[in-house]
Amino acid sequence: MNKNIKIMVNDEKVKYRELVKLFLKMSLPEDSDACRIFNYNLRSKKQEKRAIKHSTYVTARDKNDHLIGLVRIIGDSTYEHYISEVMVIPEFQNQGIGKKLIKSTLNYCKENGFIKIFLTAAKGRESYYSKFGFKVTKYNVMKITSENKEIGLNEK
User: Fold this and answer.
1) Whole-angstrom Cα distance, residue 55 to residue 72?
2) β-sheet with 6-9: strand ranges across
3) Torsion (CA) 85, 117, 109, 1 in degrees, nearest 10
4) Residue of 92, 82, 26 lying closest to 60 (CA atoms)
5) Vertex 15 angle, CA 13 and 19, to 5°
6) Domains (range + CATH), the chain
7) Tens digit of pLDDT per residue, the chain (156 long)?
8) What is the pTM for the complete model shown?
9) In this structure, what are the phi and psi dihedrals at residue 57, rounded to the nearest 5 degrees?
């Protein structure tokens, strides 16, 4: 890994503008699995700022302190952690930064006495995360997005 890259655990400097820059640098096609997992099309500035306040970030920053990668953790900060985003901008990929981000995230969770750590992997990336101990579960992940206007209406 590049010596000029620093990994910051529980980085409280994360700002909305730099998240937007990071998302744009990821250059994800709108129909990609990653875009569907992250729901980029449903995000707003107001909600993103609120999400920043209620998330824990493990970040990778370059020598100029620019955000080049991150892991976003949500949960109760003790027993259950959900890794909702893992990203490293393309020009810094394949340099071990993602690996360092995941390892630092898992150490953070261990230090906080976790019981479960969840992760949604993009299709085809399951083997990458299995190297860190993640296993595909027998349970299906279910979700509701704000696009669904019939939330709770199908209950009988």
Assistant:
1) 6
2) 6-9, 56-61, 67-75, 80-88, 116-119
3) -50
4) 92
5) 120
6) 6-130 (3.40.630.30)
7) 667 899 999 999 999 889 888 887 876 666 665 555 566 667 778 888 888 899 999 999 999 999 999 999 999 888 899 998 899 999 999 999 999 999 999 999 999 888 999 998 877 888 999 999 999 888 877 777 766 656 565 555
8) 0.82
9) -115, 135
Q: Which residue has the tokens 């595909």?
A: 136
Instruction: Give every CB contact of residue 116 below 8 A, 6+ residues apart in sequence.
Output: 79, 80, 81
* Integer CA distances (angstroms), 78 to 15, 106, 112, in order: 24, 12, 5
Structure tokens at 120: 């949604």
